[in-house]
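Reviewers of the previous submission asked for a worked example of the structure-prediction workflow described in the proposal, so we include one complete record here. The input consisted solely of the amino acid sequence. No template or homolog information was supplied to the procedure at any stage.
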Amino acid sequence: MTRRIEIKGIGVMSGTSLDGVDIACCNFVCDDGNWDWTPLAGNIYPYPHEMLERLKHSHELNGHDLAQLDVDYGRFLGGLVKKFVAENNCKPAFVACHGYTVFHEPQKGLTLQIGSGAQIAAASGIDTICDFRTADVANGGNGAPLVPIGDKLLFGNFAYCLNLGGFANISYDNAEDKRVAFDVCPLNIVANTLTRRIGLEYDKNGGLGRKGVVDKELLAKLNAIPYYKQQPPKSLGREFVDAEILPLFGQRTDIENLLTTYYRHAAYQISCAMASAGKSSVLVTGGGAYNSFFIECLKSATPHHLEIPDPVLVELKEAIIFAFLGALRYYGLPNCWKTVTGAVCDTVGGAVYHAFKKSDV
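From that input alone, the workflow returned the following structure tokens.
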């Protein structure tokens, strides 16, 4: 590709940890295949209690109620985008929305992210791109992770890009200079599940985990879970947590010990994923970057240098990259690589919904 591309877009992201809706507006420029980007605005919007509770239990809904939530959530997101655009006086060409993942079982050809793109476009008045995963899954891929193409093209100066969200995922170039990426292990989705047993939404700064002691027997059971022996490409969903992780905790109430043990487990698994010789640079983003105790666990488990950037990038990197995925989709360029997901081909993922202006009616 030799043409010059310049486009402004908005990325909308909400992960499994449900700690808010991340929205970022960026300008992307490509000259002779080399991409650059400039952040223009960003914000994180908290969920209203009712919407938060509906999303938490979305995987338990019947078909009709799930379809209704898809519509309502899309309308909600579209309203946030409209508010964001007004607050920041930005004029994007498109909105690229990840949606909220309800089910992710790519081995069955199944992945579902709700948040109706039609509703987002109608409520925001901006063309909307959504449903980024299904094209890859239909072509035999995991449909995840999606951010590695952005890691490579926007943050390629780091040896590893590590995101600490509901799930910890990583991307890097292998010896053949091909991008490799995968979900390493669940992280915040497990920690938050444990803290909710005692009425807390999350473990602030890892303070509870810092007070506990490691349960060596539990740690050994966690590390023995077969997923960790699988070679990438591979990805995780809530189903894995429910089937493999939570049963090991049983009904135990010593939450501090469980958190300590789980943090050590996750740090060990991440260190195994960054097993290259020598000391390399690691870009660390996502909400888990603020968990100071977990970061200490991770530093003690790996020789690599962990770089935690400014809060805008920590909190909004995935929203920024979804805006980038939208830019690629806008121009019909591949935005999901088969080397990452295991699909039979690179794909151009994303369904497009055009916003109709009054002049169109």
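The two ends are 37 Å apart (CA to CA). We consider this example representative of the routine output the project will generate in years two and three.
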